[in-house]
Specification:
It is a single chain. The chain has helices at about 45-50, 80-95, 155-170, 185-190, 205-225, 250-260, 290-295, 305-315, 325-330, 335-340; strands spanning about 1-5, 5, 15, 20, 25, 55-60, 65, 100-105, 125, 135, 140-145, 150, 175-180, 230-235, 265-270, 295-300, 320-325. The chain is of the alpha/beta class. Helix 1 (about 45-50) packs parallel to helix 2 and helix 5 runs parallel beside helix 6.
């Protein structure tokens, strides 16, 4: 695609495994809390369809793998037949417009409280260390967390199986693949990070042991649906929900090299500058060494603009750029990037409100004659 004779790097085609992408602008997985009773709703059909382009990649909002995976009100799941059936028309809507749709599969671990858990039980984690109360993303509400229960070694295969079944269910719902959520302080990250994981079994201690759970989840999902349909999201540098690591570069590199053995489709990394939710920080760290180590498609996210997204693609720093807030507020973001049109401002107040239209499907498109 050209604008005034010059090619916009973000709008160049890319072959991701067996998927032919028409551009590099990816819809990032965004929690929207509009799936009442953990079941995806019909209003999501329009929301995802609005953001679909022919040959564009979309990653669905974080989707729970089991009844212990939830930590937020009205987030979708994919562990019941009802949920699988509810996803089908949403996936069909994306496919009808020629889009490629991956489901992000998720377990929050200790970022939960007993009100979200079956029978009011404690959330599960790698640890029994409690999480401090947090101010929610809206800047007003304080969330409190129930102290977690540390998983017994022999229970871990059951959790891994939940990810396997969720992946199978996602394919049954019609998704083209899954992204394993290994980032942002949720369950997999609670095993990866040495500031959380205080286990003394084979899932704790050394870097290899802390990465074991994540890699066993990858193995199970790959065995179930095939490596060519599997991506993973990681945030070694982030410290969301008290999940920090003392050597994030080593963690990121070890994971990149280990993931190469499975031949998975992509690795989706959160930029080191995104240390805290929604804020950019100056940082000496770069994802470059991890990008160079990983053999598959490399996707990055974290406060990207059109300008630095183009630079990341043209310099070979990344293959794909995931956009969150800008894609939320600009359903036609690839088109706007193509012609360098002005962008709608996003309204943080309505990111997580339950309204099926306001702040969800009512952001304006460019007039078609622009």
């Amino acid at each position: 695609m050209s604008t005034g004779g010059s090619t916009v790097p973000l709008l160049t085609p890319y072959k991701m495994g067996k998927f032919d992408l028409s551009h590099r602008v990816v819809l990032a997985p965004l929690t929207r809390q509009r799936s009442f009773g953990n079941v995806p709703q019909p209003h999501a059909i329009l929301y995802y369809q609005q953001r679909t382009t022919k040959g564009g990649l979309l990653i669905a909002e974080a989707t729970g793998v089991s009844d212990t995976a939830q930590g937020y009100k009205d987030t979708p799941g994919i562990w019941t037949k009802e949920q699988v059936e509810a996803w089908k028309p949403i996936v069909d809507g994306v496919h009808a417009k020629g889009g490629i749709f991956f489901c992000q599969i998720w377990h929050v671990g200790r970022v939960s409280n007993s009100s979200f858990q079956p029978n009011g039980q404690a959330p599960i984690s790698s640890t029994d260390k409690p999480l401090k109360p947090q101010v929610r993303a809206n800047g007003i509400d304080i969330t409190t967390f129930t102290p977690p229960r540390r998983l017994e070694t022999e229970e871990i295969p059951l959790i891994i199986n939940d990810f396997r079944v969720a992946a199978r269910n996602a394919i049954e719902a019609g998704f083209d693949g899954v992204e394993i959520h290994g980032a942002h302080g949720y369950l997999i990250d609670q095993f990866l990070k040495d500031q959380v994981n205080d286990r003394t079994d084979q899932y704790g201690g050394s870097l290899e042991n802390r990465c074991r759970f994540a890699l066993e989840v990858v193995q199970a999902v790959v065995d179930e649906i095939g490596a060519d349909r599997v991506g993973i999201r990681l945030s070694p540098f982030a410290s969301y929900s008290d999940a920090a690591d003392s050597n994030p570069e080593a963690l990121g590199l070890y994971m990149a090299n280990s993931l190469n053995k499975f031949g998975i489709l992509y690795c989706h990394m959160v930029e080191p500058r995104m240390v805290k939710l929604g804020e950019k920080f100056e940082t000496p760290y770069s994802l470059r060494p991890i990008r160079d180590a990983f053999k598959g498609t490399f996707m990055v996210a974290g406060g990207y603009t059109r300008e630095d997204g183009n630079k990341a693609i043209s310099s070979g720093y990344a293959d794909l750029i995931a956009y969150g807030r800008l894609f939320l507020s600009n359903p036609d973001l690839p088109r706007r990037f193509e012609i360098d049109a002005p962008l709608n401002k996003y309204n943080r107040e309505t990111f997580y409100t339950p309204d099926p239209v306001i702040g969800y499907t009512d952001y304006p498109f460019l007039p078609s004659d622009v």
